Amino acid sequence: MKSLSLSASSHSKSLLHLLKPQTPQSKSPVFLLLSRHLCANPNSNPNQPPQDDYSLVTQVLQLLRPNEKDWNFDQLHTLLFPNSTSPSPRSLFLITRRLGAPSKALKFFDYVSENVAGTPPGSKALLSTAFQALLELTLREPTSKNKLFELYKMAKDRNVPLNLKAAGLLVRSMGAAGMEDEALIVFNELHLGLKTTHIRNVMVGMLLKIGRVDDALKVLDEMLHPEAKFRVDDFTSDVVIGSLLRRQQIGRSVSEEEIVELVSRFGKHGVFPNSTILTKLVTVLCRNRKIGIAWDVLHDVMKMGGAVEAAPCNALLTALGRGNDFKRMSELMAKMEEMGIKPDVITFGILINRLCKSRRIDAALEVFEKMSGGVKGVSAEPDVIIYNTLIDGLCKVGRQEEGLRLMERMRSQGGCAPNTVTYNCLIDGFNKVGDIEMGHELFDKMKEEGIPLNVATLNTLLDGLCRHGRLNTAFDFFNEMQRDGLKGNAVTYTILITSFCNVNNIIKAMELFNQMLSAECPTDARVYHCLISGLSQAGRMEDASFVVSKLKEAGFSMDIVSYNVMINGFSSKNKPDKIHEMIEEMEASGVKPDSVTYNTLLAYLSKAGDFKSAHKVLDRMMDEGIVPTVVTFGTLIHAHCLDGDIDKAMRIFRDMGSKSKIPPNTVIYSDLINSLCKKNDVEQALYLMEDMKEKGVRPNTQTFNALFKGLRENNLLKKAFQFMDRMVEQTCNPDYITMEILTEWLSGVGEIERLRKFVQGYPVSKPQPKQKDGIVAL
């Protein structure tokens, strides 16, 4: 550096030049400095730095206004380092920051760092503030990311110590710029006194964000040490617990138990998660079915003195409610009262909702009265959701009138008026008990009050009408609503299509289906499944196949019920190729056959007389682990009886009891007794009648008719009288077939009086239709 000392002659010339009269505006910085020294108190200490920082800053900034290449370093040195003294740290900070451009600030910093070397020891610390200002200016630039670490290395090379603000700026800025490795280097090299709680929090948050969980926990362990100088604070807790609870967590996973342990460790330092974080922790634990741990952590925070609000308690109450754990819900409410935690409207909403869903309506009403009755410590006013929950609960247990009165009470509460949901609940409630007129009266009142209707309103009314057989009224109402602009949805069409299928009005059901397709109404699979079932049962297999194709076009898949009804439909039409096609499609789509599938196939094969294939199907059914039902055995027994192979039928009957442990039903006994009597094996038929009595299976009219035929053929009159008496005892009404058999037989043997007493007071029923096959009756 060029010496700044002046010879006597040059000094004189400079002084004469500077002393020339000048306007205030033309006074040079040097003149001002000299004037200050000449006018200073002669007793003052010349080694003291200038007292007027603002004046010095103003002068230096004026001197450095030109481009860096035109700076006058001689004058700058005179201003900054008079009498080998140094400017104050504040002055250097203000000058550096107000230079504006990072390039100027860096050049100024270079100049100061070179010249401060000749000042008293410890003056290097002066540069900390200048370096802080340089960082602040650099961070304003878009390309600052690439310069931060270089600036840090420069400061390190020049032994410029970082101050607290500069250290924080570097660590935070590097972390935000994605320079996590560099930020960690800076952090690790910081003086321990600079590793404050704030900087440690920044580091922990940054490390967790990039998935370096173990590094973050290492820093955290230092903060949690009992003798740590810089300990955890509320922000530490929120950063750590909040980061670890994120669903998209990067790095190694941290278990809920580890998080709970951290909460406990924080608690020993008097630091607790805020209400939002604690609520999230309780929610996550409950979602993962760790309700016991959630219960413990919440109670531990309370026990350690943490401030707990209603929100985390509400999260735990919700989980307990899902499990109907009303005991612990009550305990938690008691604990809240003990700890002075005021329940809010959500708390009461959870309690009332769970009680209503468990049909404990009186308990729910008790909670409601406590809430709205001004009990000490309770200030939550019931809202429309709570009213609607109670009204819906009352309607679901048949207390519609109370629900109606509660709606009137709701009106009387300021700022809480019935809405669409309120009316929908009441309409549905009255519909469910068959009071369709009241449902429509409420609907009219709803329109009168200007409360908007929605598709749920439409569906509720349609469901009520359809349930009570008023399908034409339902269809007309649907069309009226359509004209008024209220369009139906998938549920609407499912209600109507199912109802028309149930009364075998397939034409109307298909009309509605086509209307749904043309309206491009978003649907679900149920409406297709309902129509497939209805068409198959009606034997309209071409139409059913068309609906199946539309179901697939809509992106849905057939379920096992739809496959079963299609297979049954094709069986009734004797379409073996189509049956095979359905079974192959089932296997390809991964839908496993169930007992209904196998029973349907057994019935079809048995009816066709293909007993060999039928028994193969039975073997495969059992190999698949599907337990045969009474329908399975009944189907085979019925088929063998029709085929005249009573021995085979009886073997299957005996296997039911000895191997499968499935008790036969009335239809199976009736089939066997009928076949045995036809084979004139009345003795075996009588044995089966006694077997029925022992096993508690009640014979029906068809059973007695089959037996009476066999007894007549063998002229076993006394046995006939016994079973006539048993028929009376069991109040089993005779039909026309019974009377035909007994009249012809008893009149021929002179027992008309016995016949008259038998039928006296009996309402003789009409003959029942004959079974086409066993599966329907079974």
Q: Would you kindly provide a brief summary of this structure?
A:
Helix content is 68%, strand content 0%.
Could you walk me through the main structural features you see in this protein, from its secondary elements to its overall organization?
The chain has 778 residues and is mainly alpha-helical. Among the domains are: 28-40 and 49-195; 383-488, Tetratricopeptide repeat domain (Serine Threonine Protein Phosphatase 5, Tetratricopeptide repeat), CATH 1.25.40.10. The protein has 43 helices and no strands. The termini are far apart. Pfam families: PPR, PPR_1, PPR_2. PPR repeats lie at residues 309-343, 344-374, 383-417, 419-453, 454-488, 489-523, 524-558, 559-593, 594-628, 629-663, 665-699, 700-734.
The span between the termini is 113 Å
Mean pLDDT: 84
The largest pleated sheet is described as: none
β-sheet strand percentage:
under 5%
Any idea what the radius of gyration is?
A: 47 Å
> What are the segments in which pLDDT stays under 50 over at least 5 consecutive residues?
1-51, 768-778
Total DSSP helices: 43
Number of strands: 0
Kindly name the structural category: mainly alpha
Residue share in helix: 55-70%
Shape: elongated
Pfam families: PPR, PPR_1, PPR_2
Organism: Rosa chinensis (China rose)
PPR repeats: 309-343, 344-374, 383-417, 419-453, 454-488, 489-523, 524-558, 559-593, 594-628, 629-663, 665-699, 700-734
Protein name: Putative tetratricopeptide-like helical domain-containing protein
